[in-house]
Design brief:
disordered N terminus; 2 domains; five-stranded mixed sheet; 793 residues; disordered C terminus; globular; Maltoporin, Chain A; mainly beta; Immunoglobulin-like
Length: 793
């Protein structure tokens, strides 16, 4: 706890600085809708004309008026409000008073009423149904990968193996641009996706019928960068760091006539060490022993990511989009494990050394073609997309084991070759009606195929032996066909939305040596509903319900294992059934002049919950196998807020308090676990003179219990800073991850036969230096800034 208090204390110490430059440009105006009624709480944002970097933002007052103060300089402003059109206004004056006059926003078709809060414009915007995070605004994301970006978002946690959890549950759906993608298909894939390619991240905690029903706790949607500014523009990013972490990235866009071309590429090389230890005791009627394991790894990996595409605006009603992406990686890793073997009286019996030399290769190709059709009726739109990808991963390990118990050296090897193919067809139609209503309907068909070829050999008397049990192929076929219909409308301050989604699932698995396919087919209905009430401009309430499913993935179903640790192994279970979750959530949004708070109370009931259970095998190995052994009731309170402390300091914080009751039967024994835990991420952002920005953040995950043990607290702090240089065309940044080197995962397993304590540190404290240069990103002619430009002031 002392470490936690140290982190909080350091975060709360404000820098002893003063703003040396005075504000000398005052920008004013008034926002109206097309009926000439004042548009209260419209979003007004100010950007530098030189590089389009964000400067400041305010909401309009009750009468639609607004005022922004800034330093001398040339700027442009954007004015927007949910349900109304947006406008961009060039500001010709660079000092003194700049009156934008009356700004009129036209009405557009909208659905369920929502309120967007932008008090912390630079990092996070809060909406009733989701939170949107600006990746570039969080200084700790400089040079990071997607996994590291996600761990910087409140209510999202990432464990030692890179598995992502939302509100304490790993059953979350991760999408790229709203679709399933090979770039987010696994923890390793997310670690290859660089922050240079990511624009923003949406967190949807109670998804409607419009979305895929997969994912118990919600959806994380990673939106990639895709510029549409006229002419040629882009940016280049260079990074270096320790532990060795080097990379280069480029994002470019060229828009001319009816075409918009966009592309990005990143090359990275990372090295990082890791350490862990495990103390384990096994005792039953037949045997009893104990051992202490020390572990360390050295991982080195090259990675390439590239994406290219174009939009072809056939006319003002039809657009065709094509995108192609590739990813490749090459890793060379070594793992060292030392076992000290004891009897139950803690007498040292022997020492074993097991070393693993691992090589991994992967490549991914992904392509999509999309068509968008707009109709004469405003807001009516039809979108259709065909998307597919092929992902191949190859991994080989050579094992060497020596022991004080015997003279010879034992040799083993394992090989895994995994191929995934995915084809997705989706079509969505939006039809507006009345003033604010709309009907949405669509269909979706997804086909996935995995092939895992696993090989294992061990040297015996000078000959390689290949046990049949560990040399086999595993097929996984998943076909999901879905359709949905939704309707929404607003009646004054009241907004209503209801939808129904149907999904037919056809899942087949086969271990080829056994020949026979294991088939599971089921048809499910997933209703959703939401009611929103805007009590006042500052207060909005919402109640929502949805039903979700969590289908076990191929890694949960596959019966093979890794042999790095030959004393404790994780295997799959091809007989798993899906989990079903009913989720109910009540939210309250409170806005103030300088901040906002989104409070959510939620309840989730899950049946056929999957838990990994540990058991001691007759071969002396501890197996952790996923089983449908439990049901769960989960309750939670989530608080996400931001507040502007002064013109140069802001704070953003997110808490998630949750309690879950897990109960079930395992090996004819009933169990019940009551678990209360909480998480928090708090960041302080400071804007200093000479265009310096500093961010200090702290993260805390409280202890949690599970059916066979518990995990202990995880806490760490990060630091980041940036400075604009070269007339704001470039930015140089420095960030330190895990400042106090405390980010360690600790857990305890306790059953009738097994007791173990373990600690794992995936990566120690690291530091990065990042340089970003932007070219041709300022508007060349402010008076003709696309079709959105409204005028000058």
């Amino acid at each position: 706890m002392k470490s936690i208090y140290t982190i909080v204390s350091l975060m709360c110490i404000s820098p002893l600085v003063s703003l040396a430059q005075s504000e000398s440009l005052r920008i004013t105006g008034k926002v109206f809708d097309e009926t000439k009624a004042p548009a209260s709480y419209a979003d007004i944002r100010l950007y530098r004309s030189s590089d389009s970097s964000f400067v400041s933002g305010v909401p309009s007052a009750e009468d639609g008026s607004f005022e922004i103060k800034a330093e001398n300089g040339k700027y442009y402003a954007t004015v927007s409000l949910f349900g109304l059109s947006s406008k961009i206004i060039s500001i010709s004056k660079q000092t003194g008073e700049a009156d934008l006059g009356s700004v009129y926003l036209k009405a557009t078709a909208v659905g369920l009423k929502e309120v967007t809060v932008t008090a912390d414009q630079n990092q996070m915007s809060l909406k009733i149904d989701k939170r949107v995070f600006n990746v570039a605004a969080d200084l700790n994301n400089q040079g990071a990968n997607a996994t590291e970006v996600l761990q910087n978002i409140p209510s999202i946690t990432v464990d030692a193996e890179g598995n992502v959890s939302l509100r304490g549950s790993q059953n979350v759906r991760i999408l790229i641009d709203g679709k399933l993608s090979g770039f987010a298909s696994s923890a390793d894939a997310l670690q290859q996706l660089q922050s240079d390619m990511i624009d923003k991240i949406e967190v949807i905690t109670n998804a409607s019928a419009r979305y895929d029903a997969q994912g118990e706790s919600g959806i994380i949607n990673i939106i990639l960068k895709k510029n549409q500014k006229a002419g040629f523009n882009g940016s280049v990013t260079l990074r270096t760091g320790y532990y060795p972490d080097h990379g280069v990235g480029i994002n470019a866009n060229y828009r001319t006539g009816k075409f918009n071309f966009f592309g990005s590429y990143t090359l990275s090389r990372r090295e990082h060490p890791g350490t862990s230890y495990t103390d384990q005791r096994v005792q039953n009627a037949d045997t009893g022993f104990a051992y202490h394991q020390d572990y360390r790894h050295e991982r080195k990996k090259w990675g390439n990511n590239g994406s290219f595409g174009f939009d072809y605006m056939i006319n003002d009603k039809n657009t065709l989009s094509v995108t192609a992406s590739v990813r490749s990686g090459l890793g060379n890793n070594v793992y060292y494990r030392t076992y000290e073997n004891y009897d139950l009286n803690n007498t040292l019996l022997s020492t074993d050394q097991r070393d693993e030399a691992n090589r991994e290769m992967e490549d991914l190709f992904e392509g999509s073609i999309a068509y968008t059709r707009k109709f004469n009726k405003p807001g009516m739109e039809w979108k259709t997309e065909l998307k597919g990808f092929r992902d191949q991963d190859y991994e080989r390990s050579n094992y060497t084991e020596t022991s004080t118990r015997y003279a010879q050296t034992e040799l083993e090897y394992s090989k895994t070759y995994v191929t995934e193919q995915n084809l997705l067809l989706q079509s969505d139609l939006t039809i507006p009606f009345a003033k604010d209503g709309k009907v949405e309907l669509g269909g979706r068909s997804q086909n996935r195929y995995f092939l895992n070829e696993f090989r294992f050999g061990e040297m015996n008397a000078g000959n390689w032996e290949t046990p049949q049990a560990f040399n086999d192929d595993f097929d996984y076929v998943e076909k999901v066909h879905a359709g949905y219909v939704m309707a929404s409308n607003t009646f004054g301050k009241l907004g209503m939305q209801a939808g129904l989604r149907g999904e037919y699932s056809d899942i087949r698995t086969r271990q080829q040596s056994q020949g026979q396919w294991n088939k599971k087919e089921y048809m499910n209905w997933f209703p959703s509903a939401a009611i929103s009430y805007q009590y006042s401009k500052q207060k909005t309430f919402q109640l929502s319900y949805s039903r979700r499913i969590n289908r076990p993935g191929q890694w949960d179903l596959m019966p093979f294992m890794k042999f790095g640790d030959n004393r404790e192994m994780r295997v799959g279970n091809p007989n798993l059934n899906p989990e079903y979750t009913d989720a109910l959530e009540f939210s309250f949004m409170q806005n103030w002049d300088k901040g906002s708070l989104l409070s959510s109370v939620y309840y989730r009931k899950t049946t056929d919950k999957i838990e990994r259970m540990a058991s001691y095998g007759s071969d002396g190995i501890i197996y952790r196998i996923p089983l449908n052994v439990a049901d769960r009731n989960a309750y939670g309170l989530e608080l996400n807020g931001n507040y502007t402390l002064s013109s140069w300091a802001r704070v953003t914080s997110g808490f998630n308090f949750f309690k879950e009751v897990v109960f079930g039967t395992y090996q004819n024994q009933h169990f019940e676990v009551n678990n209360f835990s909480w998480t928090n991420r708090t960041s302080f952002n400071f804007t200093l003179p000479q265009r310096w920005r500093i961010q200090v953040s702290g993260n805390y995950e409280a202890p949690k219990v599970n059916p066979q043990g518990r995990s202990l607290a995880v806490y760490f702090a990060d630091f980041g800073m940036t400075k604009d240089i070269l007339r704001s065309k470039a930015t140089i940044g420095l960030n330190v991850n895990d400042v106090f080197n405390t980010r360690k995962w600790r857990s305890i397993t306790e059953t009738a036969e097994i007791y173990s304590e373990s600690m794992f540190q995936w990566r120690p404290r690291s530091i990065r230096l990042v340089f970003n240069y932007r070219f041709n990103q300022q508007p060349k002619d402010h008076s003709k800034m696309d079709d959105m430009m409204d005028g000058e002031a």
